[in-house]
Write a structure and sequence with these properties.
mainly beta, Immunoglobulin-like, 127 residues, 9 strands, 15% helix
Length: 127
């Protein structure tokens, strides 16, 4: 009888771990970057998205000739319904680096749902 209890105790944490990671949260980030004064597109700007611990959530991308970017990524669900602390980091030759604090992000609650992050950012030229 004691042996069965011990084996169930080892099985419970494994089942709990599997049930918490039964899906991934799907995200799509897109946006455009413009020059702050003229409003012209900023091509070839590097775009990075970091989580609250400073880890990259996706591979960095560059803006196209119209200053647009887009990328998809997935995260493992967190214990909270909303995620905070994400940062969009932008850099481009001839421009000041820009950090955009992302507000609270609501995680998708199902595997077939995608959350969209849409950005419009203005960068200043280096004086």
């Amino acid at each position: 009888m004691v042996t069965r209890r011990v084996s169930y105790l080892f099985l419970i944490p494994f089942v709990i771990a599997l049930s918490g990671c039964s899906y991934y949260c799907h995200f799509e980030a897109r946006g455009e970057i413009r020059e702050a004064i003229t409003g012209q597109a900023v091509p070839n700007a590097q775009v990075k998205l970091l989580d609250g611990d400073g880890r990259m959530l996706a591979k960095p991308v560059s803006t196209n000739e119209r200053g647009e970017f887009q990328f998809n990524f997935e995260t493992i669900p967190s214990p909270q319904d909303e995620i905070t602390g994400w940062k969009l980091i932008l850099s481009a030759e001839g421009f000041e680096s820009t950090i955009v604090a992302v507000g609270s992000v609501k995680e998708p609650q199902r595997n077939d749902v995608t959350a969209y992050l849409v950005f419009q950012v203005a960068m200043r030229k280096v004086p």
